[in-house]
């Protein structure tokens, strides 16, 4: 009886140990599986961290580039502002010059009216024949030269022009309307030699205003305005003395 009990106990112990061994093996497998999962998660975490670090580095580089671009833009903005200020000053100077030219033009227009009226009055007294009229003008100009001796004397090549031509506007460089004032005494000059607005006494032509320019009028050359085409042809090209008074 005792032997049978011992055998039963032994069998029970062996069976219990078998169950314990199986549970331990199963737990070990689970632990090993967990370790693999942890290692895998750790690798994935490291990869994500590396990607985030790369992204942060790229953003920092982009941020630095933006800062550099911003500095360059600020420098360009300063330069542009300086140029704009310079242009504003030039514009103010140009506006002042325009105002001065307008004042000179008004003055020239008033002087032109007086000159035109004087010229019209004198022309009424001249005989109708052209040759006699030219001789009369030359004689009167020679008599008047003495009053212009204190002006600056020049020797120039003179030609004549008219506003009665195809495509001619009749408006001079300084704004004098020659078609509206056919008896005006105006000469085209090179402004670097004779300043615009100057009074000019021309032999055989009389006192005029330097109120126009011309592409071919360079250096010591002048072009006198004469309304009649025939008189322009008759005037031709000649070397004459002139007297200039800068206004």
Record the SSE blueprint.
Elements: H1 2-125, H2 130-144, E1 152-161, E2 186-188, E3 199-202, E4 206-212, E5 221-225, H3 229-235, E6 238-245
Parallel strand pairs: 1-5, 2-4
Antiparallel strand pairs: 1-6, 2-5, 3-4, 3-6
Quickly list its features:
2 domains; Barwin-like endoglucanases; 59% helix; 247 residues; alpha/beta
Number of domains: 2
Q: Give the SSE string.
A: HHEEEEEHE
Alpha-carbon distance between the termini?
Answer: 156 Å
User: Major sheet, described briefly?
Assistant: 6 strands, mixed, barrel
**E-strand count:** 6
The proportion of strand residues reads 5-15%
The assigned structural class equals: alpha/beta
Helix content: 55-70%
Mean pLDDT: 78
| Rounded Rg | 53 Å
- Side-by-side strand order of the widest sheet: 1-5-2-4-3-6
Query: What is the count of DSSP helices, taking H or I runs of 4+ residues?
Result: 3
Overall shape: rod-shaped
Which consecutive residue ranges, at least 5 long each, have pLDDT under 50?
A: 119-131, 133-141
Structure commentary:
By secondary structure, this protein is of the alpha/beta class. It has 2 domains: 1-125; 128-245, Beta Barrel (Barwin-like endoglucanases), CATH 2.40.40. 59% of the residues lie in helices and 15% in strands. The chain is built from 3 helices and 6 strands. It has helices at 2-125, 130-144, 229-235; strands at 152-161, 186-188, 199-202, 206-212, 221-225, 238-245. It has a 6-stranded mixed β-barrel. Strand 3 and strand 4 (206-212) form a beta hairpin. The model is unreliable at 119-131 and 133-141 (pLDDT under 50).
């Amino acid at each position: 009886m005792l032997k049978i009990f011992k055998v039963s106990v032994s069998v029970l112990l062996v069976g219990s140990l078998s169950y314990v061994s199986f549970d331990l093996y199963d737990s070990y497998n689970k632990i090993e599986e967990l370790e693999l999962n942890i290692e895998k998660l750790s690798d994935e975490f490291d990869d994500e961290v590396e990607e985030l670090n790369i992204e942060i580095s790229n953003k920092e580089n982009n941020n630095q580039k933006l800062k550099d671009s911003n500095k360059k833009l600020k420098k360009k903005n300063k330069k542009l502002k300086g140029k704009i200020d310079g242009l504003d000053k030039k514009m103010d100077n140009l506006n002042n010059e325009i105002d001065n030219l307008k004042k000179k033009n008004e003055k020239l227009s008033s002087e032109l009216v007086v000159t035109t009226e004087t010229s019209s009055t004198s022309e009424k007294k001249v005989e109708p024949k052209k040759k006699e009229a030219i001789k009369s003008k030359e004689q009167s100009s020679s008599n008047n030269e003495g009053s212009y001796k204190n002006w600056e004397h020049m020797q120039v090549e003179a030609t004549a022009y008219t506003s009665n031509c195809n495509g001619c506007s009749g408006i001079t460089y300084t704004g004098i309307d020659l078609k509206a004032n056919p008896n005006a005494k105006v000469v085209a000059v090179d402004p670097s030699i004779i300043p615009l607005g100057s009074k000019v006494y021309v032999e055989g032509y009389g006192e005029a205003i330097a109120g126009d320019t011309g592409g071919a009028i360079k250096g010591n050359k002048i072009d006198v305005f004469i309304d009649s085409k025939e008189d322009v042809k008759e005037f031709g090209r000649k070397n004459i003395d002139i007297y200039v008074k800068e206004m």
